[in-house]
Design brief:
2 domains; globular; Hypothetical Protein, Haloacid Dehalogenase-like Hydrolase, Chain: A, domain 2; alpha/beta; six-stranded mixed β-sheet; single chain; Rossmann fold
Amino acid sequence: MTREDVLYISDMDGTLLRGDATLSPASREKLKRMLGEGLRFTVATARSHHSALQILEGVPLNLPLIANNGLTLVAPDGRVIDRALLKPQESRLMIEAYLEAGLLPLAMVMEADGSQRVYHPPARDEYQRQYLAGRSSDPRLREIDDLYEVVEMPVVSINAKQTFAIMNPLCEKFRQAGIGCHFSEDIYTPGLWWLETGNAAGSKAARALQLKELTGAKRLVCFGDNLNDLSMMEAADIALTVDEGKAQVKALAKYVIGSHERDAVVRYMEKLWDEKESLS
């Protein structure tokens, strides 16, 4: 097996990126070089493809990226290859549950051309007002008085963030209804948990295996740090994590490769790529 037979897929926040949600200049240059030499690499992220591509601007990805926790598969030029949409009844169920819990749900709508809008109801309290104020520059945001209007739109996900005690019962309710849930603590606001919900057919694992088949790779190597990476890491031939990875992730990983603050993912790939080593 040659080095070109390996497909590498990395989570972004907390794994490939530094704590300030940026890719270091060193990692950027190393990725440029290795991708130019034939490295098979892409990312799998909870971010939208717009956000991911903005962070990775200048990195010449040659494979689709997995966005929205696997709900969308997008070409490096922003073209949507596939999107897993919610059924209207699923969207209605979640909107009702979120609003009854006093939360601020964010409903992401994606058209076939990849354009996105994120609808939300009016803020109910100071926390919600501050949250929206911090994202006022996001051109996708749309306030809507009646969030139920989105149920007939192409909804990819409906997400909310609050404490574990508030979000966990909702997660269980949605899972029992057959809705896919990605539930993990926000690494940027410890103590608050994101519940990201969507079509159960969309996951990082399913997309990673899809790309493995598409590329003909003989080995799938995945890097992750948080609970929403577990399915992808379980699907990998080799799973790797960083020093900051959650305990459940470290228990699944074959190796802990160093800190994401020190470019652990790219340095690890570089070592294998340049020395033409095989993972074992």
